[in-house]
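Lecture notes, unit on protein representations.

Consider one protein chain, 218 amino acids long.
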Amino acid sequence: MTDDLMQQAYFAQSESNNLNEQQIESTKKGLTLIVDNMTEYREAVTHVKADGDLSPKGQLVKINDLAQTTENRLAGFVNPKLAQLDKRIAETEEETRPQHPDGDPVVEFLRQREIRDRLVDMDELKIVGLYQSLATSGKDDLAMRAIEESPAAFPLISDAAILAAGKAARGERHNPKSKELLEQLKSMRSILSAAYNSARAELGLKDGSLEAIAAGTA
């Protein structure tokens, strides 16, 4: 895929992933930097390969240096950007975590225990079905908390992934704006990371070739 087509593909992805204008521009800025650096790298490689004064090994050493320089330059921009997105994602995920209700914790505990006492003899599959239906409908957060906070020695649902999904659904339901922002941030990270990994994969091909020639196997 040419640089122009690759850039267009990533741009189209950023515009179709429910990002706002500012997020789209930020993502495009990162993508443009990656594409421009890779274009510069490929042009430099072309000049090296056309240099008849360099041996094949000398050309490969030069190309490897160009690849390392390009990767270092990309890492200097992309890695801090990904770290910033990871930080914002973690903060937003925390905002979407369901919070305990205000009120007397003793009353909350007694109400939860009453619910657990009614469920304790029920088959776990039925409890899972009930829990997932409540996560979808949002009709009874108290019952969800009672299931989630059952004693570790006698869990009503043993699959932690089911409980995590239920908690996430409840938190997102209570914080729809945070949910939307979380999806946007993850989308931005996915697009930028995909473009960066694609560039690194191309640059990384030079290392193995250099080693092969140095070892006399190429």
